Structure formats: C-alpha cells, structure tokens
Amino acid sequence: MAEGADQRANQRRLARAEIAFEKNHQPRLQRRRQALAQALRRRFVGQGENGVNIGAMHDQDSTVNSSSLKEGIRAAGRALGFSALGVARADPGEAAVAGLRDWLATGRHGDMDYMARHAELRADPRLLHPGTLTVISAAVDYLPHRKSVDDPAAAAISRYAQGRDYHKVVRGRLQKLADAIGELAGPFGYRVFSDSAPVMEVEFARQAGLGWRGKHTLLLSREGSWRFLGEIYTDLPLEPDAPVTGHCGHCRACLDACPTGAIVAPYEVDARRCISYLTIELAGPIPEPMRPLIGNRIYGCDDCQTCCPWNRFARLGDPEFAPRHGLDSATLVDLLAWSEEEFSTRLAGNPIRRIGHERWLRNIAVALGNGPSTVDAKNALNSRADHPSALVREHVAWALSRL
Ligand code: B12
Ligand code: SF4
Ligand code: SF4
Fold first, then answer.
1. Global pTM?
2. In this structure, which of 19, 113, 154, 372 has its CB flanked by the most CB atoms within 10 Å?
3. Tens digits of per-residue pLDDT, 80-99?
4. Which residues line ligand 2 at a C-beta cut-off of 6 Å?
C-alpha cells in the first residue's frame, strides 16, 4: 500500500508550494511561532506539572515540557477514536534514512518511482513542511469483525481495503485533532497526513512509542498490527515520547508465511516480490513466475500479519472500516463480471477504486487461473477474452491456459 497516483501529483504541487513558502515566508513563520509561544505561555504557565520551556522554542533542542498539553492531545485523540497516539521529534534519524537509501539503491521499490523521486522530502520533514519540529503520530484500528471467507473460488481482498478509504478517514480525524489542539494551544502551524505524502510513517510511529518495527517491517504493538498510521507535522515543540523495545524475539513466522519470499531478510521487504505491490502498485503485466504464487489474492495481501502471534491480541477495528459490498465474501466469477461503471460506483470511497477497472480485471484473471478448473471460471474468463485492453486479454489467456 502506498501513496496513490492522485496523491503523487498533489505531492509535487505541494512540495513546490511548500519550498516556495519556505523561501518567502520565513518572517511570517517566525511571527506565528512567537504568537504560539505567547499563547502557550498564557495557557500552560503555572498549570503544567513539569512547567513550560517556551523561551527557546525555535529549534529542535527545545520542547514545551508540558504534560498537560500532551495529555489534552491524548484525550482529544481518544475521543476521536485513535487507538494510539504519541510524539516524536521531526527527525527520522541517520539509521532510518540510510535504510531508505539502501532500499532504493537496490531497486526494491520497483516501479514506485515516487519513492525515489521524493526520497529527500521523505527523509527531512522540514523540507516537506517548513517549520516542522514535532511529529504527532496516531493509529486507527481496522481489524474486521468477522473473518473473510476461506474458499479458493472467493476473492481474497486484504482487510484494509474492504471498507472505507482510510486515507480520507484518518486524515479527516487528524484534522479534527488539529482543531482540538488549536483550542488547547492557540494558533499553530501543522499539516496532516495518512499515506498521502512522502513521510516515514512507520519510523515516526516507532519513535513516538506506538510500537516496534516487526520483522515484516510494519509497525507492531502488543495490540497487533491491524492499524493505519497518520501524522500531524507541527511547529509545536512538544516533548517526544520514548520508543518501546521490540518483541519479535526469535519468531520468524512472517518470513516463513510470505507466499512470495518478499521479506528477504528480517526488516527488509523487496516490494517487487510483494503481492501488495504486484496487485496494487504495478501498472503493467504481473511477471509470469509470480502469478501462481498470488493464489486468489486480488488486492493486497495479509499473510505476514495473519500469522503474527501478536495479532491474537488485536482489538476489533473502527466501524468505519467494516466490509462493504460483500468484499469479504464475493466470488471471483461475480467480481470479474462487474462492468467499468459498476466498478466505479460500487467502489466509490474505497481504496480499490484507485487501481482502475483494467488492473482489477487483470488481478481477478490471475486468481481465476490459480483456482479450481470449473465451468463457471472458464465461462467467466472467456467472457473477457476479447476485452479491449491487451493487458487484460493476456492475463485472461494465461489463466485459461491453466484451467
Ligand atoms: C511503499 C509502501 C508499501 C510498499 C513497500 C512496503 C515496504 N515494506 O516498504 C508495498 C506496496 C509493498 C506495501 C505493502 C503493504 N503496505 Co504499505 N506502505 C508503503 C509506504 C507508502 C512507504 C513505506 C516505505 O517508506 N518504504 C520504504 C522502505 C525503505 O521502508 P521500510 O520497509 O519500512 O524499511 C525500513 C527498515 O526496515 C530499513 N530497511 C529496509 N530495507 C533495508 C535494507 C537494508 C540493506 C537496510 C540496512 C535497512 C533496510 O530501513 C527502512 C527505513 O527505516 C507506507 C506509508 C508511508 N508513507 O510511510 C505504507 C504503509 C507502510 N503500508 C501499510 C500497509 C498496511 C501495507 C500492507 C499491509 C497492505 C496490504 N495488506 O497489502 C502491505 C504490507 C507489506 C509489508 N510487509 O511491508 C501501512 C502499515 C501500517 C502499520 N501498521 O505499519 C502504511 C504505514 C500505510 C499507513 N498509513 O497505514 N507498502
Ligand atoms: S503482504 Fe504478503 S507478499 Fe507482501 S510481504 Fe506480506 S506476506 Fe509477503
Ligand atoms: S510474525 Fe513474528 S517476526 Fe514477524 S512481526 Fe510478528 S512477531 Fe515479529
């Protein structure tokens, strides 16, 4: 899962605008921070148990050491349905940036050009949003209330994509959280994200104490990993939380469970082998040797999380993400029959819509080719054999050759 195509164009525009903003509006930023300092002084001096250090809030070494402001932010976060919230400095650190560079240098991002193009913005929050001192990292749970149907003729759609589009839901909530912070602290500079811009989301969540990095590279906690992440970049100099220690121990269940060997070493995913990349990010043909390994997964993959022992303790997800349109139980044959119009209307507000009807058909054809050789499956594939898209036709022919 990654920042989508529509967001990529936005990123470019925003990055240019933000850099221009940085050049032209430094004095305005300074004034805004001074106003913020005064607001904080008014609200928190004499109130906080730890006192307030706002005299030197213009650099990363100063913090508003006010537990009452942070407690206020946490309480607002809980009221808005965030399952975890923490604070990190706006600096991913050398090790994380070196990891990102190594990953890019070895080509593990595949065709996700935006990962390479925006590496500098990703590595430095102040380039993406000038004036950022702090990252407020927050999580929302999405584990569905019931298990998906386990049947090779059914479509396996990853849990995160069975309900409403998290990009909008999480960012909407973060905006409300930012409004609540404004009520507490007065005017402040900020920008909200959830998989919508070049941000090192897992690393900041780790630093903010929301959990540790599992060997599958996702953020993992004692309440599991079925969580979306989102952030507020802000010029509030809040005191960072402490990271938690990792609890993967000797376990390697996710490395062993991965159907394609995409977790090439602990904490290293080669996206080119990951089913999530192959079914969502990759625009062209799915490499033939990978197709049989995909099974009936038509959008993303959950295997490295379903096998994880910590997910036994996961909480049920937010009702916003409850499965819609039977996406937890639909058959491959039924989904292949959806017209382009049905695809667009039924999946309005769902992240799947972003891949478009052509890739949707490509993925379902591969899954049918991996499934049982039934008359229904063959008829369904034959009905798409003359599809105007060469990509769809080739995947349908491949599938028919296996049934
Ligand atoms: C690109 C991307 C993908 C790509 C690449 C995945 C990946 N592991 O990098 C693909 C398309 C494969 C993908 C898949 C999925 N994704 Co995704 N993805 C992202 C995205 C946009 C960026 C992640 C990133 O920066 N990758 C770059 C690499 C370098 O980072 P990394 O793997 O975390 O590696 C770090 C270290 O492990 C180390 N490292 C890595 N490789 C190497 C190599 C060497 C030699 C060294 C020394 C170090 C090192 O350095 C890195 C920096 O700290 C984030 C959103 C965001 N903006 O952060 C969502 C995000 C990570 N994805 C998410 C999800 C849910 C998924 C899926 C579960 C979706 C699904 N069900 O199909 C799968 C899980 C696959 C997996 N095991 O990672 C969530 C994770 C939530 C959580 N609990 O952590 C995020 C945070 C989106 C969100 N806002 O919720 N994703
Ligand atoms: S999402 Fe699936 S393919 Fe990707 S790393 Fe996890 S188990 Fe492997
Ligand atoms: S499956 Fe095991 S190794 Fe993988 S993330 Fe979970 S605890 Fe860590």
1. 0.89
2. 154
3. 999 999 999 999 999 999 99
4. 216, 258-260, 262-263, 269, 274-276, 301, 303-304
